[in-house]
Amino acid sequence: MTRPSFKFGRQLCALIAVGVLLSLGMPAQAELLPTPADLQARMPVKPQEFTVIEPHLSFKGEPPVRRLYRGYSADQVLGLLLGPDWRKRSQQELEFRALDGYVSRIPVERFARYKASLVFALADASQSFTVDNKGQNEKNVPLGPYYLVWDNIGAPELLAEGASYWPYQITQITLRQADSAALLPASLGEGAAQRWGEHAQLAQKYCLSCHQINGFGGDKMPLNLAVRAKLLDDRSWHVWLLTPQAFKPGTSMPPLPEALPHAEREAIAAKLHAYLKALPVLP
Ligand code: HEC
Hints:
Blueprint: H1 6-24, E1 29-32, H2 36-42, E2 48-53, E3 66-73, H3 74-82, E4 92-98, E5 103-107, H4 110-113, E6 116-122, E7 130-133, E8 138-142, E9 147-150, H5 156-160, E10 170-177, H6 180-183, H7 192-206, E11 212-213, E12 216-217, H8 225-228, H9 234-242, H10 244-247, H11 262-278
Antiparallel strand pairs: 1-10, 2-3, 3-6, 4-5, 4-10, 6-9, 7-8, 11-12
The chain binds heme C.
The site of heme C has 20 residues, from helix 8 and helix 9.
């Protein structure tokens, strides 16, 4: 997939933001991020350094790789951009849009549980702000303008999730109502939220940053999972989600996080398949 130029990406983001605001008709608050230089001029404090275990570079059975980044606590930046009350909207989510079409939607409530930082450089300024993304078979991927990292040292539950909530190339942040209409449509039947709520959350967390469900999700590889899931048998589905490299060597589709216990990865794959097969395909 070609990467849009920086300028084009921004215009696209602005258009998408307006589109989202118009189409939902609900109060969503979208903010294009200032450049790191502009942000530093606006922030009341100096950038800090944050050490994390870099999930794109750390693998099961190998010593974890630490990295030192420079940036701000996400709290401070979000407070500046969205106003001091953003944290109180616990029913909402923050949507991070990236230059390459990746979209990460993260429950606001998660920012109260764990410490996140929005970084724009490595602490050692002589090193380039890039990462090898082995899960996606990509090398020297630019992380800028912004990368969301989590304080995962001493937090095994975060380490187990791998890079699931670590969007990079972030250009825009939107505070919005969690959108259940696309993921839990009325046509799923009565009690859908109870029956399939957890499944929809899993899809959101692990798949919809790149893929879509009935038009909702990311643009990195915008295939409709509600269609595709019905075409794959259980075995192919599991192989594809757990070991996509076995299915298609060199693919840029990442496996479900390998640091999760095997049984849990199997269970997530099975839940996703059941849910996506049940989900009606909407026009
Ligand atoms: C980082 C982006 C990304 C994420 C996250 C992601 N995928 Fe993919 N996926 C891709 C790409 C890219 C392809 C195309 C791969 C190729 O053809 O090499 C793909 C292809 C697929 C396919 C098509 C396989 C076929 O029939 O050819 C399915 C099914 C799929 N993904 C399901 C999922 C599911 C389910 C999840 C969540 C558990 C997920 N993907 C998460 C990027 C992603």
